[in-house]
Amino acid sequence: MKKVKEILLACLLCLNCVTAQNDLSSESFDELLNKIYENESNDSIQMIYINAYLNKAKLTNDFDELSMAYYMKGVYVEYPNSLKYLDSAITIGEGKKSNKFLPHICLEYGYALFNNSRYFEAFQKFIQAKRTSDSLGLKNISFNANTNIAFLKQISGDYAGAKDIYLENSYLAKSLFKGEDLKEERLLNYQELAYAYLMIDQYDSATYYNRLGYSLSKNYPNKTYPAIFQLVEGINQFKREKFQSAYDSIIKTESSFIEEGDSINLAFAYLYLGKIQFEEKDTLLGEKSLLKAYDALGKNPEKISELGEVYKLLWQINKKRNNKQKELFYLTELIEFQEAIKQEYNELSPAMINEFDIPKLVVEKEAVITSLKETNKLKTQGVRALIIGLVLVVAFAIFQLVRRRYYQNKLDEIIHSLEQKSVEHKKDKKVELDGISEEVLDEILKKLSDFEAKNQFLDANLTLSGLAKKLNTNSSYLSKVVNLHKNENFSKYLRGLRIDYITKELIKNEKIRNFTIKAIAIEAGFNSAETFSKSFRESNGMYPSRFIKQLTKKGLDL
After folding, report:
1. Can you give the C-alpha Rg of the chain in angstroms?
2. SUPFAM superfamilies recorded for this chain (predicted)?
């Protein structure tokens, strides 16, 4: 009987959605678009309006609007299903010479592919976005497409091509941004140009942009910027064999990277300090710097090609000392690191991956193991030095900075939203309900408030009828009060309370962040980790695992 009720309820919900879409057929495209934007916080309602927009476009045979509708479906549906809608949007858009939305679609398609490590395909879509936006005079799309194309060119080793694109973007930025936004874009652009010039051995030009960027960033709130310019200039001086100047520049960055929790750039700083100290024959200090770089790498899961040199140098140091245990340890670390890089970037840059001679490293590892087993018998065959070019120093640092900034902003939005909900809850106004006396309504609202304050919603087995019984009322009254005063049905009301509770707990209680997702779900009153994760994402815009990672990076302990 219970199963039959569930099926009937599902059918009723589907019928309501269909009825809602039919009722929306008289709405104009602009009205539907406004509704889509107004309901960005509610995925299910927003999708109703998107589907209504799509149906209307099909009925009117309006190809521009149809392309727009498929684009919106592609944006709001998760990967990989999003790609089929974006494909439809592009196919329709390519058939319309005047379609000014085609560049937006291509750009969004590129982002979807890029975020899922399909770099070569993403590159093609960014090129298409650039070509179409240039022909239509859409400078903002050209700018964003350029940024991604240049970044992918850097990964593939085409630094000269990347440099030309960054120069183009420096001119576009002046017409697109003003004030602090322009300053931010100029700082990013200077970093990218300095690194690109560094990689094509144009050291004077690299110094020029490092100085421009450092001067512009000195009074900027984000203290990472001046440190990055100093780091890149230090690497620049190292390549010119001006080791003292390189050391003086890089050593100044250490405290800033530690303070900002920037473990990637801190690892770069320690790596080059170690290389400078080796050049000056100070082996002990050089090894200490490399060990600091190794520790910094352990605090960040990101894999950046050049930082593999940390493992390589530590391996070679212990190989010369004939310390077989440590030699084997760092060689194993190097192989695992290179395997991770190969898996991530093989599609985009086979040439770069060919530099990672992993089979030879594996042979070396086996030789070390054999040597350890045979006690002091040196049978190591040796491998040719694995040279990793200066790849992705600032490019990946910028990529990490941009991505970190996005999630930090999202985290701030969640915290602000929780504070706002608390304020709005205090301002809730009583609304009269037909069939319920004012006295009964006051009593239910008071008991609901106590229910929320005591966190009784964390009972995973709680039902509408069960809560109604606890509050000494009936299910019908309680359902009406929740629907009108909380603006949602009972199930969503419970989920919302639980997600808000556990979000606050994760922010202020560092211990809970170390729980498994399943344990956190139980803590929040959910029986299923999958249901919890989905509800968390619907409410906060990111999965709990990503949220915890951002809290850890930001070092919140509220």
Report:
1. 29
2. Homeodomain-like, TPR-like
Which alpha helices (H) appear in 61-158, and where do they start and end? Answer: 63-76, 81-94, 102-114, 119-136, 139-156
DSSP class of residue 485?
H
d(CA 197, CA 36): 45
For 220, left (φ over 0), alpha (ψ -120 to 50), or beta?
beta
**Would you state the structure tokens that stand for residue 256, as one six-digit string?**
């800033």
Residue 38 pLDDT > 80, yes or no? yes
Is the Cβ–Cβ distance between 549 and 514 less than 8 Å? no
First and final C-alpha spacing in the chain: 48
pLDDT on residue 11: 43
Q: What ranges in 218-323 are assigned the alpha helix state H? A: 224-239, 243-251, 254-260, 263-279, 283-297, 308-320
Quick one: pLDDT at residue 104? 87
- Cα–Cα distance between 208 and 226 in angstroms, integer? 14
Q: What is the rounded distance in angstroms from the CA atom of residue 135 to the CA atom of residue 295?
A: 49
* 484, 485, 486, 490 alpha-carbon torsion, rounded to 10°: -60
Task: Say if CB 303 and CB 337 are below 8 A apart.
Answer: yes
Name the residue with tokens 């684009």: 71
- From CA 340, how far away is CA 345, in angstroms rounded? 9
- For the record, the structure tokens of 201 come out as 């051995």
User: Distance (Å, rounded) from C-alpha 369 to C-alpha 329?
Assistant: 10
Check whether the bond before 80 is cis (ω within 30° of 0): yes
Phi and psi angles of residue 488, each rounded to the nearest 5 degrees, phi first? -165, 165
DSSP secondary structure, 411-438, as one string = HHHHHHHHHHHHHHHHTPPP---TTS-H
How far apart CA 135 and CA 125 sit, in angstroms, is 15
Tokens of 535: 């509800």
Axis-axis angle for helices 203-217, 179-199 (nearest 10): 160
pLDDT digits (tens, 9 = 90+) for 399-431: 555 556 655 666 677 776 666 665 455 445 555
Virtual torsion, Cα 533, 539, 542, 544, nearest 10 deg: -40
**CA nearest neighbour of 209 among 223, 221, 195, 228:** 195
Nearest-CA neighbor of 36 among 58, 19, 57, 53? Answer: 53
Summarised one tens digit per residue, pLDDT across range 390-406 is 544 554 545 555 556 65
